[in-house]
TrEMBL record, chain A:
GO molecular function, one term: phosphoenolpyruvate-protein phosphotransferase activity
Name of the featured protein: Phosphoenolpyruvate-protein phosphotransferase
Pfam families the record matches: PEP-utilisers_N (PF05524), PEP-utilizers (PF00391), PEP-utilizers_C (PF02896)
Cofactor field: Mg(2+)
Residues that bind Mg(2+): E414, D438
Family membership: Belongs to the PEP-utilizing enzyme family.
Residue intervals of the PEP-utilising enzyme C-terminal domain: 253-521
EC number(s) on file: 2.7.3.9
Coarse class of the protein's main subcellular location: cytoplasm
Species assigned in the record: Planobispora siamensis
Catalytic activity: L-histidyl-[protein] + phosphoenolpyruvate = N(pros)-phospho-L-histidyl-[protein] + pyruvate
Residue positions of the active site: H186 (tele-phosphohistidine intermediate), C485 (proton donor)
TrEMBL record, chain B:
Function: General (non sugar-specific) component of the phosphoenolpyruvate-dependent sugar phosphotransferase system (sugar PTS). This major carbohydrate active-transport system catalyzes the phosphorylation of incoming sugar substrates concomitantly with their translocation across the cell membrane. The phosphoryl group from phosphoenolpyruvate (PEP) is transferred to the phosphoryl carrier protein HPr by enzyme I. Phospho-HPr then transfers it to the PTS EIIA domain.
Annotated NCBIfam families: PTS_HPr_family (TIGR01003)
Protein known as: Phosphocarrier protein HPr
Superkingdom of source: Bacteria
UniProt-annotated location(s): Cytoplasm
Principal subcellular localization: cytoplasm
PANTHER family for this protein: PHOSPHOCARRIER PROTEIN HPR, PHOSPHOCARRIER PROTEIN NPR
Record-linked Gene3D superfamilies: HPr-like
UniProt KW Manganese keyword: no
Organism for this UniProt entry: Planobispora siamensis
One Pfam family, short name: PTS-HPr
Taxonomic lineage of the native organism: Bacteria, Bacillati, Actinomycetota, Actinomycetes, Streptosporangiales
Length: 560, 85
């Protein structure tokens, strides 16, 4: 295998020899005990944590800027009195200092991970502090990444913490490749800030032999190992061409022959609005409201919700903003909604709108808050229901929306039964939006959270395209618009295919908008239709991708 | 016990930079000081992990409490930090 695939999170092309940064701190085994002198062991733990705090502060002072703030916050974690008390208690009971530090952090780790979003991303910071303290206690060498080098290298790691990257510069690092992490992980943020290409969630990256030349494409997520010189040259030229080509296309989305396609942003709250505006989103195709609710013991008040909705709506006067009602359950449990006694198959259980059967007050509050916000802003508000499986459910949801004073109610198409019967669902849906991620999960019986099944999550799977085509066909019969708001919409080639299937709007992460806009502007609607037919005629995801690209000649010129 | 009730205005809530400044200021004081979300369980205001765990968002109300010599001044400072936009 000479190509690895991950998720591109910082565009551009980087080339250099691979440096695999392994900071594997062994987990202190459960039940590790100290020799008996609890007071001495406790002091050892305290000294280790203080040493880590000082080291982090020193690095922060050297790095300055945003990094310094992050590292100082980490130093505060190392000196946390709550943590110190937990560690002391564990050591008092006989646990070794290393294990006590490990367990002491464990509790907070869980709380942050559960909160998700910004706090979830802090888990990596916390783990870094913990691992550094354990390394001190176990006498392990403190590993650091090289900062002074003759030639920039490709930094490969499982994941990177702020302390690892604080002293790095683009002179030292040509690209980042990590096995873990996502678009909001520390590696992604620091790479974008440095203007260095990065690929995260790249399986197999740390198994690459040290010194292997690597060509990293931070847009496509492809990592080529030991590529020929001409390929490196071509990749660099393509990256330059893409930058200028993308910059040249602006305005509302349309195909080369002027067929309009509304290009919108997926957002999780007011925080994502500036990026959506910067990349020229024509409104919001998916406002995920669960970020308001996650990590809460009780639902946010209607007033708090109204403020958050209003802030988003006011940013898009005259444009469409589609708000998805709370989609909890499965991978996003909430204490006040989901039951804690565990369902055998949470993804097939009480999630999305199904929860509102048990807790109608949560939906009522949300719709009230949204209707109030809508009355105070000039955006065209649509409400969208997640996890609808039947027409009855759609009709019931639409009725509740209208009662709350929200006239435009739509349905997410993510359950295969809904995709097959959009014409029936139209009785309770003014519009449809295909959620490709969940639709793939349910069509292929492949849990999104099981890494080993990612191939079945490939949105190019012809069966998934068939379901999308059927959903669009049913919507057309009833004269309802049908968009796509899953990851698939942000893939420029797949975006053309979806338009070829008859999709009327595409909603994606804001940063994907320029490439999708440029790809559509280079192809006629006919070319998109032919690409879609070719993809559906294929028998595998891989051949569907290749067959579609053969009908989309403009993509090569964009370096996509 | 002296306390201050303030609404968090920063877009990032009491996370990131505001949380660090808040905890650093609290940690410099010798007296005990706690912070809670309105109606919630208080946590040690000198604990960054405790404060982050509260997950205070923009628009949330927090209650900061302290008792002893200099409590009023400290609470004023902390209230200013928590309510800064």
């Amino acid at each position: 295998m000479n190509t690895l695939t991950g998720v591109g999170v910082s565009p551009g092309v980087g080339f250099g020899t691979g440096y695999v940064f392994a900071r594997e701190i062994p987990v202190p085994p459960p039940g590790s005990r100290h020799g008996g002198d609890a007071a001495a062991e406790r002091e050892r733990a305290e000294r280790a944590l203080e040493q880590v705090a000082q080291d982090l502060e020193r690095r922060g002072a050297l790095a300055g800027g945003e990094s310094q703030k992050v590292l100082e916050a980490q130093a505060l974690m190392a000196r946390d009195p709550g943590l110190a008390a937990e560690v002391a208690g564990l050591v008092e009971a006989g646990t070794s200092a290393s294990r006590a530090v490990y367990e002491g952090f464990g509790h907070y780790r869980e709380v942050l991970a559960e909160a998700g979003g910004y706090l979830g991303a802090r888990v990596a910071d916390l783990d870094d502090v913990r691992d550094r303290a354990i390394a001190v206690l176990e006498g392990l060498p403190a590993l650091d990444v090289p900062t002074r080098v003759a030639e920039p290298y490709v930094l490969v790691a499982r994941d990177l913490a702020p302390a690892d990257t604080a002293l790095l510069s683009p002179d030292a690092v040509a690209a980042f490749v990590t096995e873990e992490g996502g678009p909001t992980s520390h590696t992604a943020i620091i790479a974008r800030a440095m203007g260095v290409p990065a690929v995260v969630a790249c399986r197999g990256a740390t198994a690459v032999a040290a010194g292997t030349p690597m060509l990293v494409d931070g847009a496509s997520g492809l990592v080529r190992l030991a590529p020929p010189a001409r390929e490196v040259e071509a990749a660099r030229e393509a990256a330059a061409a893409r930058r200028s080509a993308l910059a040249a296309v602006g305005g509302p989305g349309a195909t080369a022959d002027g067929h309009p396609v509304t290009l919108q942003a997926n957002i999780g709250g007011p925080r994502d609005v500036p990026d959506a505006l910067k990349y020229g989103a024509q409104g919001v195709g998916l406002y995920r409201t669960e970020f308001l609710f996650l990590g809460r013991r009780e639902a946010p008040s209607p007033e708090e919700q109204e403020a958050a909705y209003l802030e988003v709506l006011r940013a898009f006067p005259g444009q469409r903003v589609v708000v998805r009602t709370l989609d909890a359950g499965a991978d996003k449990p909430l204490p006040f909604l989901t039951s804690s006694d565990g369902e055998p198959n949470p993804a097939l259980g009480m999630r999305g709108t199904r929860l509102f059967q048990v807790h109608p007050e949560v939906l009522a509050d949300q719709l009230t808050a949204l209707a109030r916000a809508a009355s105070r802003a000039a955006a065209q508000v649509g409400v969208m229901a997640p996890m609808i499986a039947t027409a009855e459910e759609a009709v019931r949801f639409a009725a509740v929306c209208r009662e709350a004073g929200l006239p435009s109610a739509g349905v997410m198409i993510e359950v295969p039964s809904a995709a097959l019967r959009t014409a029936d669902l139209a009785a309770g849906a003014d519009f449809f939006s295909i959620g490709t991620n969940d639709l793939a999960q349910y069509a292929f019986a492949a849990d999104r959270q099981v890494g080993a099944l990612t191939a079945l999550q490939d949105p190019w799977q012809p069966a998934l395209l068939d379901l999308a085509a059927l959903a669009v066909a049913g919507a057309v019969v009833r004269d309802r618009p049908c968009g796509v708001c899953g990851e698939a919409a942000g893939d420029p080639a797949l975006a053309c295919v979806l338009v070829g299937l008859g999709v009327t709007s595409l909603s994606m992460a804001a940063a994907s908008l320029p490439a999708v806009r440029a790809a559509l502007a280079l192809h006629t609607r006919d070319e998109c239709v032919r690409a879609a037919q070719a993809a559906r005629a294929a028998e595998s995801a891989e051949s569907a991708r290749a067959a579609a690209r053969a009908h989309l000649p403009g993509l090569g010129g964009l370096g996509l | 016990m002296p306390e201050r009730q303030v609404t968090v205005k920063a877009e990032v809530g009491l996370h990131a930079r505001p949380a660090a400044t808040f905890v650093q200021t609290a940690a410099k004081a010798t007296l005990d000081v706690t912070v809670a979300k309105a109606g919630g369980q208080p946590v040690n205001a000198k604990s960054i992990l405790g404060v982050l765990s509260l997950d205070v968002r923009q628009g949330d109300t927090v209650v900061i409490s302290a008792e002893g010599e200099g409590a009023e001044e400290l609470l004023d400072r902390l209230a200013d930090i928590a309510s800064a936009p």
